[in-house]
Automatic annotation (TrEMBL):
Origin organism lineage: Bacteria, Bacillati, Actinomycetota, Actinomycetes, Streptosporangiales
Pfam families: His_Phos_1
Organism, scientific name: Streptosporangium fragile
SUPFAM superfamilies listed in its UniProt record: Phosphoglycerate mutase-like
Protein name according to UniProt: Histidine phosphatase family protein
InterPro entries named in the record: His_Pase_superF_clade-1, His_PPase_superfam
Gene3D superfamilies: Phosphoglycerate mutase-like (3.40.50.1240)
Top-level taxon of origin: Bacteria
Length: 155
């Protein structure tokens, strides 16, 4: 069995004149990213690999939530649709047992919905994550069981 954790970047600041890719996390976003990491660790999950969008807010979220993890910046995650994210995951090394994808809405939320066939949660706010258990190889991924979901508002 494999575990996929889909993590949306934490809350980012709106800074006039700053490119979207360069937006930093807010103070609350930094706190929420740390809390997401504590929650992931509390579930006994330790990532083998983190695929992360190149934006400043996703990289900082990964840094705070998953300190010491092997983070690979994947430029195509930025603005990716769910099907594109799924293709990236399918290319993961079979040796990876626990994979984290740090990205953006609407792609990450739709990915979780597509993989788990669940529509019970209307949103996937900044800092939210879902844990999906996956049978089989990454290359064959087409669904899984959502075993956990967390967002900053659920403290």
């Amino acid at each position: 069995m494999r575990t996929l954790i889909v993590l949306r970047h934490a809350a980012a600041a709106q800074v006039p004149g700053l490119a979207d890719r360069d937006r930093p996390l807010t103070e609350g976003g930094e706190r929420d990213a740390r809390m997401a990491g504590e929650t992931i660790a509390g579930l006994g999950l330790r990532p083998d690999l983190v695929l992360c969008s190149p934006s400043a807010r996703t990289r900082r979220t990964a840094e705070l939530a998953l300190p010491g993890a092997d983070v690979v910046v994947e430029p195509d995650i930025y603005e990716a649709y769910a099907d594109e994210l799924l293709m990236m995951i399918r290319r993961s090394d079979p040796e990876v047992r626990t994979l984290v994808l740090v990205g953006h809405n609407p792609g990450v939320h739709q990915l979780v919905q597509d993989l788990t066939a669940r529509d019970g949660h209307a949103g996937f706010p900044p800092g939210a994550f879902a844990v999906i258990e996956v049978d089989g190889e990454w290359a064959e991924l087409d669904g899984g069981r959502r075993v956990a979901r967390w967002s900053p508002g659920e403290r």
